[in-house]
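Figure caption, in words: inputs first, then the predicted bound structure.
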Amino acid sequence: MLNLAVLVSGGGTNLQAIIDAIGAGKLTGVKIVKVISNKEGAYALERAKKHGIEAVCISPKSFAARDEYFREMEDTIKDSGADLIVLAGFLVVLSDSFVRAFEGRIINIHPSLIPSFCGDGFYGLKVHEEALKRGVKVTGATVHFVDEGTDTGPIILQKAVYIENDDTPEILQKRVMEQAEWIILPKAIQAIADGRVRLENGRAVVEMCKGEKI
Ligand code: GAR
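Bound structure (glycinamide ribonucleotide present):
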């Protein structure tokens, strides 16, 4: 069993996609042991509680220093018995020591095709605003391992989504979630749980299941 700690900041639709995939038997050998939000009122916490999953808010604001916050996060995650940390719309930049403490065991979902529209300042709706501003015709989502940089870790899965002429950032965000994020995040977790992801020369190599399409 691969135990997951899912870190969230907002609505939690990606968390919901993981919960639903487990419920539907599409994601197996995986259990969510903890959901942690940095924001008190995050709806993601409600989603977790509705499904009987332990959910807590650990706010950076409650700590005098950043390293104290991350020490608490580290202790809570270690106590939960999580093997893999999933950043599912978690909008706090991780400290280097936190990333090192869980090296190779943190993944993130990002709402673009990395290396486009990523890095510092690119999160949530902002990513889609920039894609529309640039006039790209194709965008998508990426699941990647987290390293000490911002959105620089090895890419596990990506899925492309077409942009339409009258898209607004909100419409595009919804399409990217529906057509890419909610599909590739559970698939990436399944691949890790199955031991089908390996690192080679700083890149992630994923063995797909026979006939599996992204
Ligand atoms: C998602 O679109 C996710 O890809 C994005 O935040 C949203 C969270 O939605 N993450 C980032 O931008 C990270 N750089 P959710 O709370 O409904 O899952």
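Residues 169-193 form the longest helix (25 residues).
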